[in-house]
Design a protein that fits this description.
The chain has helices spanning 3-7, 49-52, 56-64, 68-90, 93-110, 122-137; strands spanning 20-21, 25-26. It is an all-alpha fold and 138 residues long. A two-stranded antiparallel ribbon has the order 1-2. Helix 5 crosses helix 6. The termini are far apart.
Length: 138
């Protein structure tokens, strides 16, 4: 299943024709996300229940092996937190969206080298990247 069609809409704000970035990961810049707006990324785990039970590290390995469903689930899990953290630190929603997008891109680029030995969790890694990017913008 192609990611653009699998992602569908983001609370009705982004159509399936929204541009995608490397690896067919949907671009989060088209609409506001996160708990502050009440909008969240579609939870793909309903379409693929086998992914719901997998830890984030396993999803990273699956994504690195070309599985778009894994990226959808991991994005649904991590993007709202990344965006929320950036928004709290920066106090600027537009800047926070840019930071969250850049951090997710870095996560996808790191997927091929991800070690599944438990040395790092994707959520912890992403949180640190978001924090560092925020400091760079301040």
């Amino acid at each position: 299943m192609a990611m653009a069609s699998a992602a569908g809409t983001v609370s009705g704000a982004v159509e399936a024709s929204a541009p995608a970035v490397r690896g067919d990961v949907p671009t989060p810049r088209a609409a506001p996300f996160g708990p502050a707006t009440g909008a969240v990324f579609n939870d793909m785990s309903g379409d693929t229940p086998e992914y719901a039970a997998l830890p984030d590290g396993a999803l990273m390995v699956l994504f690195a092996n070309g599985d778009p469903g894994a990226s959808a689930v991991l994005t649904a899990r991590l993007l709202p937190r990344a965006l929320g953290h950036a928004a709290r630190v920066l106090g600027d929603r537009a800047e926070a969206e840019d930071i969250a997008q850049e951090a997710m891109l870095r996560l996808w680029r790191a997927a091929g080298d991800w070690r599944q030995d438990g040395a790092a969790q994707p959520a912890t890694w992403l949180y640190r990247v978001v924090a560092n990017l925020c400091v760079d913008r301040l």
